[in-house]
Amino acid sequence: MMNNMIKRIAIPTLALSFMLMLPAKAVEPTAATGELRALPDSIAFQLPVNNYCSPEDSLDFSFQLSNTSANAADITLFFYKQDGTKFNAEGSSYREINSTLLPGKPFSLPGYATGLYHINFGNHIKCGDRAYLGRILVNSGTASLIARGWVAKGDQIEQVVVNNHNAFELMSPPLPSEKNRTEP
């Protein structure tokens, strides 16, 4: 009788203690559960302009942004100075290098289209106003983009690398009213 009583108490107690001792496994959302990881709404990149700069020793900065989708992309291109303030100078057009992008202003980039930006620091814009950081932000919907650029000083060319020269996707965050909405 005592054996039966011990078995009735000991077995559930041991089972419970093993449950408490085993570590919990984290459950991450997956596509199978209907939850997808959200895409970022922006991507940042550096501009390699930390070089000597003067009217006699100027820097050319050129940038191109292409839409890899058939759908238009609603985006904004930002450039920032060393102190973090926005650099919104209109780009220059010279010898078949035309600027079609205006930093800090939202625009729609048609499907498969490419926007261009070019400016000279030292001659066109003061060296102290150089942009050091860039950021591409999607304003609405999603965008599939690829971007690259260069900074030239004489014969020396430094690449502007965005996402390791690979295409990237951005998605605007849902509006507060959309976050709480449930699908029918």
Structure description:
There is one protein chain. The protein is mainly beta and 184 residues long. Helices cover 13% and strands 36% of the residues. It is built from 2 helices and 9 strands. The chain has helices at 2-21, 176-179, and strands at 42-46, 59-67, 73-81, 107-109, 114-121, 131-140, 142-153, 156-161, 168-171. Strands 2, 5, 7, 8 and 9 form a 5-stranded antiparallel beta sheet that branches. Strands 1-6-3-4 form a 4-stranded antiparallel beta sheet, with no helix packed on it. The radius of gyration is 27 Å and the shape is elongated.
Keywords:
184 residues; mainly beta; 4-stranded antiparallel β-sheet; 9 strands
Q: What form results from the Cα inertia axes?
A: elongated
Tally of contiguous helical segments: 2
Main beta-sheet strand count, sense and barrel state: 5 strands, antiparallel
Low-confidence stretches: 18-35, 178-184
First-to-last CA distance: 59 Å
SSE topology string: HEEEEEEEEEH
Helix residue percentage: 10-25%
Strand content is 35-45%
Mean of residue pLDDT? 83
Q: Number of DSSP strands?
A: 9
Cα-atom Rg, whole angstroms? Answer: 27 Å
Structural class: mainly beta
Give the topology, please:
Layout: H1 2-21, E1 42-46, E2 59-67, E3 73-81, E4 107-109, E5 114-121, E6 131-140, E7 142-153, E8 156-161, E9 168-171, H2 176-179
Antiparallel strand pairs: 1-6, 2-5, 2-7, 3-4, 3-6, 7-8, 7-9
